[in-house]
Design brief:
Layout lengths: L1 H30 L3 H25 L12 H18 L11 E2 L4 E2 L3 E6 L23 E6 L1 E4 L3 E4 H6 L4 H26 L7 E3 L4 E2 L11 E2 L3 H13 L7 E6 H8 L2 H4 L10 E3 L2 E5 L2 E6 L27 E6 L3 E16 L4 E14 L7 E5 L2
Parallel strand pairs: 1-15, 7-17, 10-13
Antiparallel strand pairs: 2-3, 3-4, 5-16, 6-16, 8-9, 10-14, 11-12, 12-13, 14-17, 15-16
Amino acid sequence: MKSKSFFRFFAIILANLFVAVAFASGVHQAYGYDTMTVASVTFLTPPAMYIGACLAYSALDIPFPQVRKTTALCMAIQVESWVDYIINNLFKENSFVDLCDNDSDNVLNGTVVHIPQAGAKPVVVMNRSSFPGTAVRRTDTDVTYALDVFSTDPTHITKAEEKEISYQKQESVLGEHRMAMGETAADQLLYRWVNGLLTGSILRTTGGAVATSLAPGATGTRLKFLKEDLKRAQALMNKQNVLKSDRYALIPSDMYQELTEDTALLARDGANGGELQLKDGVVIRLYGFNIIERSSTTVFTAAAPPVAKAPGAATAVTDNQAVICWQKNQVTRALGTVEMFESVNDALYYGDIYSCQVKFGGRRKRADDCGIVVICQA
């Protein structure tokens, strides 16, 4: 260790000497000052200042400040890295979140997003014979939505745990915080997209009664989800003049299994106009919709019309699952500030405390609800 320290010290001396000579040569060429004099001053000034500072602190009986590797600066760098990690991986398991417009750059004051809505279209007159034309002012409106604040309960890691475990528990804990927050925020985003949806945008399943695809806490039977139900959603969007590209259908796993039980659907010659795309027996596109399977989506009540239930709401035996269909440009989301909090070497907890907070939200973009359709169980 001593030999390494000596060589390190010797290398620093040589490096400083090289810099001093190079600087002195430049000064000599530019201003004509003696090279040796400038090099000596350049080389000796830093250590002289350090020695003077030490003497001054000693005379005043003040401890000389020491640089500690565990200062707040080092911890801040770690926190910043974890914030970047959360931002880049927040919806890693919920990739559908990226299949919509992103208003993250339009967040005002970190809490609200404004979406301008164009007013009425101009009237077109054929073979105009009456002059002058009437000038009409277009009245635009504004759709806004506030971001929700998602925060995780703090996790306590004791010093004893840090010494006993064979892996980096901090990394494991913060990874779980990221996953839990991403899952909760994604569930809430789906709810924001479909909550209060107009009756005309809600369709019902039409297959035979089955008891194998029930929402959590539900009992009885529900009508099966058929490929024809998705075809009706396609027709509804077509009537709304919604773009035919970038359409998606998020299907709960149970209802997806009902869809794939259709033998005519899975037979390639029963692709109904070439709309079906299969890969390894998995339906990836049908009737213009890119198919996405997820363990669950938003649950709806048995009311007429059905009403979306907020994530975490109490279950009911009459609850229904639903397929959520949308066109990418007709729904939006926005990510606000992302923060990670830590309390290192907390005296009350004999360890470290970690938690995270994210501001996130979304909604349908159009006031007339065009471009999003729900197929709810009946």
